[in-house]
Amino acid sequence: MPPWVGVAVRTGARRVLAEPSALLMQVFFYLLVTGAVTSLWRVAVEANGGTVAGYDARALTWYLALSEGAYLAVHSRIIEEIGDDVAGGTVASEMLRPAPVVGVRLATELGKALPRLAVNCGAGVLLCLLTVGAPPSTAGLLLAVPAMLLAGACNLAAMHGVAALTFWLRDARTSWFLYQKLIFIFGGMLLPLQVLPPWLHDVAVRLPFMTMTYVPARLASGHVEPELLLVQLGWLAVLAAFATSAFAGGERRLQAVGG
Amino acid sequence: MASAACKRWVVDVRAIAATSRGAFAESVANPKAFWAQVAAMMINDLGWMAFWVLFFDEVGEVRGWDGERALLLLAVFATSAGLVLGLFTNARHIGRMAADGELDAALALPVPPLTYLLVRRISPVNLGDVLFGIVLFAVSGRPDAGRVGIFVVGVAASAGLLLGFLVVTGSLGFFVGHGETGDLGFNAILLLANYPADFFGGPTKLVLYTVIPAAFVTAVPATLIDEFDWAQAALLLAASATFLVAAWATFTLGLRRYSSGSVWTQA
Asked: Which terminus, N or C, of chain B has the lesser number of Cβ atoms within 10 Å?
């Protein structure tokens, strides 16, 4: 692994750890979101005789704690920020470094996500233990730990790929909240994929968004399905290749525009 | 004396109207970008619509809420939040501006600073919410004269309350010295207003009707459209008026503690 990867990851993590008040606010927001969504689903489960789409209240609470934790650990406006950096020329100056622009950015963002992931997981586990008790399966919860890391990596790679469209479109700012909604529904962030009608479920499991929130959440909800980690690894390779090639194409175009 | 006050008021209203026109002209200066942002937000809101449809399709009616009423809640929310964040964009930035000392430009003008700041910027993206909310109500809200009337008044009260709440939490930045109170208030109320208040119980429900009045932003107006009740309507209007007065008072008191950051911005 090139040395700049470790440096970028450490720098990203240190930046987040240097602002404990922002981290505290992030945990507060995470608990607020998770508390609201889990309340909603618990009431629905109660009104439906104890299960919804095969999940009981305990499984759903653990599911949502992990899906929200994975989603909120990654900065959601990266697409917009990269768009601004492309338009403002920051990316052009980053191209002078002896390391790939997208690689350094991805590693830095991954470093930033790690502390957030850790505090979200801690707060989420505490919330679940206090509201519904122990996880449905310890093995599932242990598998969810690497799945959370892979979920963050897949999400970051996909966002960088989408953001690279800015090289061609010039303004892709609004695409960040459209991307966000795809994770809400096809990623299983707000509702397990089993809630979707069969045809939509079949579409969702063929898309990469499921790797970003559904996989760790599914594992933590007591479904010991280690093959889901392989699905994440496969998609990570595809998404990383997509982001790298999109940036490479965009950088060539940026050079051409700049003369 | 009264005549001088009246003249002053007319001058203020003219100046604020001119500022609004300027902000609007600025936002539509690039019509393609303006409509692209409006359309993107409308597509984005379809995501929330899909969520509620899928949710109630799976769980049926829960605590008096079904898919139709959830869409009513979404229509009220999109319209009122879109109006506040679209037409009074700075409402969510007051905390940061106060804490960073960025109000100098507004204070130097001969107009009420809070009103000026609120109308100074328009966000086209959020105007997409307004359009979406109105269309959603027209399509799924079974509109008739009575329901349209309640929708309009309910949205106005909801928007007033949301605006007041954002200014109150933002103005706390004058006292605590950082703008995070505004961000926290903004995120908390928008998040909680997404869900029917009846889904929460005990202390959380109490919070939704008091400290973070998200229930008055969406659940109460949406329920009024289906089941009108004079007492609830009066409570909604009173809550809205209270937060608007509190917003003016908190901002005015906060200004006494304002210290310039020597930053000259366009606010």
From this structure: N
